[in-house]
Amino acid sequence: MAEAEIEVKSKLAGMFRALRHKNYRLFFLGQGISLIGTWMERIAMSWLVYRLTDSAFLLGMVSFCSLVPSFLLGPFAGVYSDRFDRHKILLITQALFMLQASIVAALVLTNTVQVWHIMALSVFMGLVNAFDTATRQAFVIELVEEREDLSNAIALNSSMFNVARLVGPSVAGLVIAAVGEGACFLINALSYIAVIGSLLFIHLKPYERRLQEHKVWQQMKEGFHYTFSFAPIRAIILVVASMSLLGMPFTVLMPVYARDILGGDASTLGLLMGATGIGALGGALFLAPRKSAMGLGKVIVVAALLFGLGLVAFSVSRVMWLSLLFMLVTGFGMIVQMASCNTILQTIVDDDKRGRVMSFYAMAFMGMAPFGSLLAGAFADRYGVVHTLLGSGILVILSIIPFALQLSRLREMVYPIYRRLGIMPEIATGLQVATNLSGPGEEASP
């Protein structure tokens, strides 16, 4: 009995081992509180826009405005993330997020908000987010001193994000039903105090600005070559882009589905998004005990299939409890696939190019979503939300096939990097890996 208890405690400690690092622990707590406010705002924003316009297309347009700057500015953001102090960049971006949320709250609470206000402020948020996302993704490794805890830190980030996805929409649905959308925007504005405070308490080594031998455009070109000349990095970026373009827009259509298909209200929307969050949290906790990126290629394929199948099943459901169940599956597959891709990238990239690579990840993850949202909104207006979600699920399933077919070749290409980092032992007996296969750092070198 005692041995069983010790084993359970050991597993639990392993699942949360990245929290041993004080800086990461501070960031984790502050970001977690802020993300609850962010998810409350997302639900309130989508419900507000659909209430004001009754247009699925405009729902997609607002999402497009908030996310397309990440696509356009991603490479610039990655260069600046590698050139400047990431800690200071994040302090600035979080303060600007707080300003944006405060303006939205004031407009809604005074009943002066119009759709063009929302679109303009969404563009502003997107501009800030382009720099925040690339920097935040690369900043995690500075908070975790031991590289072997990196995969756990990424999994815990996903857990934090999806706890917020669970709590935020559920609370938002109740708040909107009770007092309206304005309170959600105000709560989000106040929540940024937590993350800004945590960043102020984080103590890192004094930032040493590297002597930049190349100009911004040259560094962008170098980052592009580094990212897309090495097949494993290129393949992962393309997988993330396809999932974001074809699958992620389902969240934009949730207000339409909640009100028009299930006959519900804002609380129904909150329950659906909360179910997605529970599934996604389960996926993040599923990844948390992993100690390395080994074997995540197969996980990406299976998770993408679950993501697509969950969307297909959800699109044909007319029963609330079944819809919630299918959202659980969808959320699980979505986060396991995305977090696994993130973990592999963070593991195999060179530190001096991390910001630029993660900016391309952000472009694929957040930059392709606006185009998907715009297309999904247009299709839903013309063909209906049911057919749009059904088509999204089928396309997600089809899009993972090319990655699955080349998985064994990609695995052999990253093995030399894993051995160099000490992630995997020397080649096992009988396994032959071509000696001329090099890592991304070697290919990108002049």
The best one-word shape is globular
- Give the C-level CATH assignment: Mainly Alpha
The CATH topology name reads Growth Hormone, Chain: A
What order do the SSEs take from the amino end to the carboxyl end, as H and E?
HHHHHHHHHHHHHHHHHHH
Specify the biggest β-sheet: none
Strand content: under 5%
> Please, what is the CATH homologous superfamily?
MFS general substrate transporter like domains
Residue share in helix: over 70%
Helix/strand structural class:
mainly alpha
What value does the Rg take, in angstroms? 21 Å
Total strands: 0
Overall tally of structural domains: 1
Describe the structure.
The protein has about 450 residues and is mostly helical. It has a single domain (about 15-200, about 215-420), classed as Growth Hormone, Chain: A, CATH 1.20.1250.20. It has helices at about 1-15, 20-55, 55-85, 85-110, 115-145, 150-180, 180-200, 215-230, 230-245, 255-260, 265-285, 295-315, 320-350, 355-365, 370-385, 385-400, 400-405, 405-420, 440-445. Helix 3 (about 55-85) crosses helix 8 (about 215-230), helix 9 packs antiparallel against helix 13 and helix 15 (about 370-385) packs across helix 16 (about 385-400). The longest helix is centred in the first third of the chain and has 32 residues, at about 20-55. The chain starts with a helix and ends with a helix. About 55% of the residues are buried. Residues about 425-445 have low confidence and may be disordered.
